Amino acid sequence: MVYPEASRWGAPDTLAPLYDDVYRADGVLSTVNVVEALQEFWQLKASRNGNTASGGSSALVIYESVPAAHPPYVCYVTLPGGACFGSFQNCPTKAEARRSAAKIALMNSVFNDHESRRISDNFIEKAVAEARASFAGDAGSHHQDPNAGIAAFRFMLEANKGRTMLEFQELMTVFQLLHWNGSLRAMRERQCSRQEVVAHYSARALDDAMREQMAREWASREREAAAGGGVIRNELARAERELRAARVAARELRFPKEKRDILLQAARLAPSSDLTARK
Fold first, then answer.
1. Are 232 and 270 in contact (CB under 8 A)?
2. Which end of the chain is more exposed for a tag (fewer CB within 10 A), N or C?
3. What gap in Å lies between CA 179 and CA 34, rounded to an integer?
4. Considering only CA atoms, which of 252, 248, 230 is closest in space to residue 167?
């Protein structure tokens, strides 16, 4: 079972096609307290869905400011269900960075509630066609047969009919990480079926235990590398480039952010790594 590269899973345009309108909407959103509006949106959504247990924790919007001694400042926001966005503007203050992240998250949250964002037969055909076109347009950059990965993508979409793409994001990120980490290849070698793998991970959230396991695997690769290591350093540099590119383009960015965080944890676990002091 071979899955598409992370950048090809459904194609970013399938997940959130609002990016061309971000700056045009900026003037309208400048009159709105987007931080409060984003929280209220998810609280109302949780209330409508009957998810009012635990004091409304199911509607919690989480912000993460990147430590920095000077501007531009960066902030990430994670929505209920796991989708993540970041400040896409050049922000002179930490408060502005939070507003920038909330702005793109609010736009995607509202748009995601539209019926067109629900996974349907028509939606699946369009998403699969986009994924196939993405592979065809960049055939020289990968050495795997895309058909198996596209088939797996279709299978997962069909198993989640009726859900929105933001709701689908958690499961999608899990499988992106499993593909990136090499776990899916190991499962294929053990002759696990696609149905078995999807069924197992559909019921498992991306949690600290999963992140730690992946970090330990990368730390092991670092220790087993030839003199000088560099496995984590090189992969971390790639993840940070992907994360920055997704952020400044106002795209959903949970996958590269999870990769970066896992690799930073791996660097702390691998004594030979020269990144152990990095934050």
1. yes
2. C
3. 35
4. 252
